[in-house]
Amino acid sequence: MDDTIFQSKILSIPKSIQQEMQNYLDYLLFKNDADKLKKHPKAGCMKGTFKMKDDFDEPLADFKEYME
After folding, report:
1. Does the reported pTM lie above 0.85?
2. Which residue among 21, 43, 48, 51 sits deepest, i.e. has the most Cβ atoms within 10 Å of its Cβ?
3. Model confidence over 5-52: pLDDT tens digits?
């Protein structure tokens, strides 16, 4: 769409709707900037962060009587 046609259409609507359009445009611009700043975690990004003990799978002494 040509900029002059777009501007003439905006100017032809009532002021209250122009203000609403301006608010919406501000929101869209903010949302666009926020989407650019979002960083999504990549698969495997936490690798090596957690360490499991060698005896992780061993039965717990607290549950010994239930295991018998």
Report:
1. no
2. 21
3. 988 888 899 988 989 999 999 998 888 887 777 777 888 888 888 888
Whole-angstrom CA distances from 45 to 34, 40, 41, 48, 49 are 22, 10, 7, 9, 9
User: Which residue's entry shows tokens 């009587």?
Assistant: 65
SS3 annotation, 23-38: HHHHHHHHHHHHHHHC
Dist. CA 26–CA 8, nearest whole Å: 20
Token digits for 22?
């301006």
* Other CB atoms within 10 Å distance of the CB of residue 18: 13
Instruction: Give domain limits for the chain.
Output: 3-67
